[in-house]
Amino acid sequence: MNKFKLEREQALLLIIDLQERLMNAMQDREQVYRNTRLLLATARELQIPVIVTEQYPRGLGPTVPEVKENLPAEYHYVEKISYSACGGDLDGYLQESGRRQIIVIGSETHVCVFQTTRDLLEQGYQVTLAGDAVCSRTDGNYANGLQLMRDMGAVISNTESIIFDLLMTAGTPEFKAISPLLK
Questions:
Q1: Catalytic-labelled residue, pool 80, 86, 132, 135
Q2: Is 135 a catalytic residue?
Q3: Residues 51 and 93: beta-carbon distance below 8 Å
Q4: CATH node for 2-182
């Protein structure tokens, strides 16, 4: 049951390829932006590290403003050309953080999110995916990507479940800061 419990001291938020040209093709982009902002606010409040990747930014553009404007003052950035974000800089950041629970969001569910999740699981990380903060161009690819990651051992959750699991209890200053954002 441990893989179903997030601990703020072990968690890290990984945002994969929420880039301008890529996101223009996503029908669920507004939902992904909203949930990304909620997870970023939670990460900021709970001091959870954030890593942002960009796939070939010269071709796909930078991270969308809806996300970039909400990033914490300190975060790690990984530029990549391989579909999986693992390898190189990401692996170094993860090892340096000492965190073992990776909350994954981004695009596309069946390509970069899938391959990164597969590699993280292979390296022994616990991966929780916010199913309402990932997207693909088609519903079929989205569903297939989620199923593959579930079959590999990732936990498929949702933004609010992740937030409340990290908060653990009501009435705290963190809860009071985050709960108005969920309305």
A1: 80
A2: no
A3: yes
A4: 3.40.50.850
What is the reported pLDDT for 84? 98
Among residues 17, 28, 119, 132, which one is catalytic?
Answer: 17
- Which pLDDT tens digit goes with each residue over 2-47? 999 999 999 999 999 999 999 999 999 999 999 999 999 999 999 9
Nearest 10 degrees: CA dihedral of 150, 154, 157, 161? 160
The DSSP bridge partners found for residue 12 are 102
H or E segment to which residue 68 belongs: helix 65-68
Residue 1 has what pLDDT? 83
Q: Which of the following is catalytic: 28, 86, 112, 132?
A: 112
Going from N- to C-terminal start, the domains of the chain cover 2-182
The question of whether 139 is a catalytic residue gets the answer no
Prediction pTM value: 0.98
- Is 112 known to be catalytic? yes
